[in-house]
Amino acid sequence: MGDTEGQTTYRVMVLPGDGVGPEIVAAAQRVLAVVGERFGFGLDYEEGLLGGCAIDALGAPLEDGLIERCRPCDAVLLGAVGGPKWDTTDPAKPRPEQGLLGMRQGLELFANLRPVRSFAALAHNSTIKPDVLDGVDVMVVRELTGGVYFGKRERVGDIAYDTMIYSEAEVERLMDYAFGLARGRRRLVHSVDKANVLESSRLWRSVAVRVAAGHADVELRHMLVDNCAMQLIREPRQFDVIATENLFGDILSDEAAMLTGSIGMLPSASVGAGGVSLYEPIHGSAPDIAGKGVANPCATILSAAMMLDLSFGQKEAARAVESAVEAALSSGARTRDIAVAGETVLTTDQMTERVVAALAGASG
Fold first, then answer.
1. What is the mean pLDDT of the segment spanning 188-205?
2. 47 beta partners
3. 137-143 and 159-162: which strand pairing?
4. Looking at domain 1-114+262-364, what is its CATH homologous superfamily?
5. Is 18 a known active-site residue?
6. Are the beta carbons of 61 and 55 closer than 8 angstroms?
7. Cβ atoms of residues 111 and 143 within 8 Å
8. Is 177 designated active site?
9. For position 99, what pLDDT does the model report?
10. Which of 39, 156, 200, 359 is at 20 to 30 A from 145, Cα to Cα?
11. Does position 3 have pLDDT exceeding 80, yes or no?
12. Which among 56, 87, 134, 226 is annotated as catalytic?
């Protein structure tokens, strides 16, 4: 963060990534420019290579020195990584996702935050009944640096194994963060595990209980992951903050995404112990529509709003962006992933313009 002629300027590392990534990141930057002008702050951008584009250009999924370049930044804004072009089951070949895992480890991004809110204008898009969705506001807090994604793995002949491993310190850090978030919300944490089967989950549960003792003003409830998967569809309003390990959080947050009717609407933040956090939409790179100008930019725009709030402390600006997205949706703005029969379908640029117009209208 700098100070230019009395104006605060934030330094952001931009990682456009693969597929529709460059298009949706550009849309978010356009919105950020408008909200920055309105609220009196600036943004300086650097750019790096992560994902399939890095494999193509450099032969590796993570640009050399990128983590070191990210550390002095105020935040990292990521588009999307991956695609069929780089799919392989050969463990010796690089995969785009390895770059993202390396980034999470290098920056100590230990918690992934995925807010899931129902949009009244999109209630008819979901396969869930509108009365079940009304008022849904859930924050999934997924542990990012441990679990089966980082445990020892091996394939020997016709046998393969992956190890789910956690330390008490990893669980304690995640749970403490989740309780802190819940204190500013409805003061309820569901700790999700598989403690009836897995030893790592039994450790998880015991640490959750210990951490809860230091947050007496927040209620802790335990729930098995299979039951949680069912309850998210049956009665999603019961949840406030869901705190869970890496694999379970990956699956549950994608399931929860469908409560909104489209994965193209959901942002995320990965918060780091080292101070810099990463913001990205939870959807993939959608290579089938890359370059066609039809991707939904809303999840990336809302990820930028999370960046304004959590990394910059620009809470009023963040709420303005979120309100502008809701206003655009309420006015009938739709990209093809959230449009139903008879609704006009907008391009990425047109949807971005509707959000920008809503921002300008709110300030006028």
1. 98
2. 14
3. unpaired
4. Isopropylmalate Dehydrogenase (3.40.718.10)
5. no
6. yes
7. yes
8. no
9. 94
10. 156
11. no
12. 226
